[in-house]
Specification:
It is a single chain. This protein has about 325 residues and is an alpha/beta fold. The protein has two domains: about 10-145 and about 270-300, Rossmann fold, CATH 3.40.50; about 150-265 and about 300-329, 3-Layer(aba) Sandwich (Rossmann fold). The chain is built from 13 helices and twelve strands. It has a seven-stranded mixed β-sheet with strand order 7-6-8-9-10-11-12, sandwiched between helices. The longest helix is centred in the middle third of the chain and has 17 residues, at about 175-190. It is elongated and about 65 Å long. The two termini are about 15 Å apart.
């Protein structure tokens, strides 16, 4: 994937550009769009680039008709408050934040700055919005999940591993999102008559032990939650899971399939971020975030990794392969 230079100090980099922008067009200020992402820039390049391209199609060309400032936390949530404060100090017209942690950091740093959530999971339960139809406050955007995604993933795995009796859940109980996702996974597993074994990892040092614990319980496959800790450690998690003979599944992307995940069933993130540009455009033109209903993804994407399947000695039925949007050979 194409690498992009980290923008470690948004304020320092953007200030000259903002000053120049104000001098152009008779002193008129260009629209300023901030991007605050929990991820590292090179791992999120495709999604953010989709947003940049869509903004350009709407007339917001970075450096010409708009100023776009990108800030990445490199999966270190503790960095978000400082990054958000620097971004808010530049008084952007709108901030695009990728997940709940950056959204909350942006809200605290700039309570009156409109925020577009690029990939929101459980936004009501996490206190980001009041409702999908009427978000309220200064946050709106795109949901990153639809109902029954966990059910679909388990159904697919039961089609592949017909004698599966239980799924292992790697979770970070300190993350609010993990608790919500565990609830839904357990409900889906109950409905399909399969058990759930969980193992907690709150830090990178606990991941290997958690995967080993799950492997020793005899689970048939591993479900990985998409919080910052696990996405940041995804390559290591995949190596450990394969070594433990555990195919890994997820309802999120974060380049998990490229890192070695067995199967993912998720939203098409680039499409979501292209749609986020429409929200940005409407807000810049005067629409309040509270008046923009949250949108849900129109399509989901099934990806399977034949390379991982071969390593694990698992045959993926043709019935599953024919439904896959992406197959890693």
């Amino acid at each position: 994937m194409k690498r992009r230079e980290f923008l470690m100090s948004a304020a320092a980099l953007a200030a000259p550009r903002l000053a120049n922008a104000q001098r152009e067009n008779g002193g008129a200020k260009r629209p300023v769009v901030g991007i605050l992402a929990l991820s590292a820039s090179e791992s999120d390049d495709e999604e953010i680039q989709a947003l940049i391209d869509a903004l350009a199609q709407l007339g917001y060309v970075d450096g010409e008709t708009a100023t776009i400032i990108r800030s990445y936390a490199n999966f270190e949530a503790a960095r978000l408050p400082a990054l958000a404060a620097k971004l808010a100090a530049l008084r952007p017209d709108v901030i695009v934040a990728d997940t709940a942690s950056p959204i909350k950091a942006a809200q605290k740093a700039g309570p009156n700055i409109p925020i577009v959530g690029g990939s929101m999971s459980y936004p009501i339960e996490q206190g980001l919005i009041a409702s999908f139809a009427r978000p309220g406050g200064n946050v709106t955007g795109l949901a990153s999940q639809v109902d029954d995604m966990d059910t679909k993933v388990i159904e697919l795995m039961l089609e592949i591993i017909r004698d599966a009796k239980s799924v292992g859940l790697l979770l970070n109980p300190d993350a609010t999102l993990s608790v919500l996702e565990e609830r839904d996974l357990r409900a889906a597993a109950r409905k399909l008559g399969i058990g759930v074994e969980s193992a907690a990892a709150r830090a990178p040092s606990e991941i290997e032990g958690a995967i080993s614990k799950l492997a020793n319980t005899g689970v048939s496959f591993l479900a990985m939650q998409p919080n910052a800790l696990f996405i940041g450690e995804r390559n290591r998690i995949m190596r450990l899971a394969i070594a433990a003979h555990l195919p890994t599944v997820s309802t999120q992307t974060g380049d998990l399939i490229g890192a070695g995940a067995f199967l993912t069933y998720s939203v098409k993130l680039p499409e979501i971020y292209r749609r986020a540009a429409v929200f940005v455009d409407k807000i810049i033109k005067g629409t309040k975030p509270s008046d923009l209903p949250v949108e849900f993804p129109a399509q989901l994407r099934l990806a399977v990794n034949l390379k991982t399947a071969k390593t694990l000695g698992i045959t993926i039925p043709q019935s599953v392969l024919l439904r896959a949007d992406e197959v890693i050979e």
